[in-house]
UniProtKB/TrEMBL annotation:
Membrane topology recorded in Swiss-Prot or TrEMBL: Multi-pass membrane protein
Organism: Candidatus Zambryskibacteria bacterium RIFCSPLOWO2_01_FULL_45_43
Recorded catalytic activity of this chain's protein: UDP-N-acetyl-alpha-D-muramoyl-L-alanyl-gamma-D-glutamyl-meso-2,6-diaminopimeloyl-D-alanyl-D-alanine + di-trans,octa-cis-undecaprenyl phosphate = di-trans,octa-cis-undecaprenyl diphospho-N-acetyl-alpha-D-muramoyl-L-alanyl-D-glutamyl-meso-2,6-diaminopimeloyl-D-alanyl-D-alanine + UMP
Keyword Cell division: yes
Protein name, per record: Phospho-N-acetylmuramoyl-pentapeptide-transferase
Chief place where the protein resides: membrane
Length: 347
């Protein structure tokens, strides 16, 4: 049984990679044809960032469409085939009410909201012509988080939080604010990390690979397949997004990935493992919080520029060096997180 399920996860993940690879050239062509270019922060508001990235001003955004369109498209096709033809196609279908309804819905809604924000930026709508403000994005993250938290608590009766090496703790209604915090933090961190060619795509690939393993070990094979399909799509996306990027991910990708990651972590009750599965996201968001706090309280900066990947760029590190080293850090700490997961769940 497990061998067949492993074959399904790996097989559909490979199909996802090939499908995304085939889909991308057409999307790239559309993005360039209609000049869906990312608008950089102005030289006055972010001088260091502008100097480091001004050469990228005409690079299209919204490349994250490749990721979620592939994942949702494969899910829909296999569901239709599984409904019409049982047997082999029923075996491939991974849409499951108990396991994948919520992450699929979360990815779709977050992708749609992110796409609207990206389009606002392209057409210079919003604050300084750059789309939604951070505060406005946080409101959207919170809205999705509240809906998800209430659904988990009232509809699914989730009231426990797994504490590594100690077991499940009954937390009652505290589950809702914790859920809200995780989703907002995941979305915010993903958005902050998406600043260098291939950076967010690479670290998210390790994160979703870890969540695939976790879901499989827990016997949630449909959820493992969904996560694996996301890994396949991310790998194809990176083919075009590594330096020099043909396009940027945009909020439609980062928002979809961040929120979906948070939902899967809550579904698998591995919330407290997220700092291991997504260490770079934690580092990036903390650098922003520390910088803003220091500027407000002490009127001085800790870092040359934030998120922290821009600090290393400002120190003179090539963009590719920052990206690759962050990938390595992410891979190593993710493996440590998986090891801790295996040990803690074996007792």
């Amino acid at each position: 049984m497990e061998v067949l399920q492993a074959a399904r996860v790996l097989g559909i993940s490979a199909i996802s990679f090939l499908a995304a690879l085939a889909l991308t050239p057409g999307i790239v062509k559309i993005l360039y044809k209609f000049h869906f270019n990312k608008q950089l922060r102005s030289k006055e508001s972010a001088p260091i960032f502008y100097e480091l990235h001004k050469k990228k001003e005409n690079t299209p955004t919204m490349g994250g469409i490749v990721i979620w369109a592939t994942v949702l498209g494969i899910a829909a096709v296999l569901w239709i085939l599984g409904t019409l033809f049982d047997g082999f196609f029923g075996y491939l279908n991974f849409i499951n009410r108990a396991e994948t309804y919520l992450p699929i819905a979360a990815m779709a809604m977050a992708a749609g909201l992110g796409l609207i924000d990206d389009l606002m930026g392209v057409f210079r709508i919003g604050a300084n012509g750059g789309g939604l403000k951070i505060s406005q994005k946080l409101v959207l993250y919170a809205l999705l988080a509240v809906i998800g938290g209430l659904w988990f608590y009232f509809r699914l009766d989730w009231t426990v939080l797994y504490i590594p090496f100690f077991g499940n703790a009954e937390i009652g209604w505290w589950y809702v604010p914790i859920f809200i915090f995780i989703i907002i933090a995941s979305a915010f961190s993903a958005n902050e990390t998406d600043g260098l060619d291939g950076l967010l795509g690479g670290v998210m690939m390790f994160t979703f690979a870890a969540l695939t393993v976790v879901s499989f070990i827990l016997g949630r094979y449909d959820l493992a397949t969904f996560s694996g399909v996301t890994v396949g799509a991310l790998l194809a996306f990176l083919w075009f997004n590594i330096y020099p990027a043909r396009f940027f991910m945009g909020d439609t990708g980062s928002m979809a990935l961040g929120i979906t990651m948070g939902v899967i972590a809550m579904l698998t009750n591995t919330t407290l493992f997220l700092p291991f599965f997504a260490p770079i996201l934690v580092l990036e968001s903390l650098s922003v919080i520390v910088q803003l706090t220091s500027k407000k309280l002490f009127k001085r900066k800790i870092f040359l520029s934030t998120p922290i990947h821009h600090h290393f760029e400002a120190l003179g590190w090539p963009e590719t060096k920052v990206t690759m080293r962050f990938w390595i850090i992410s891979a190593v700490i993710t493996v440590i997180g998986l090891a801790l997961f295996f040990i803690s769940t074996s007792f």
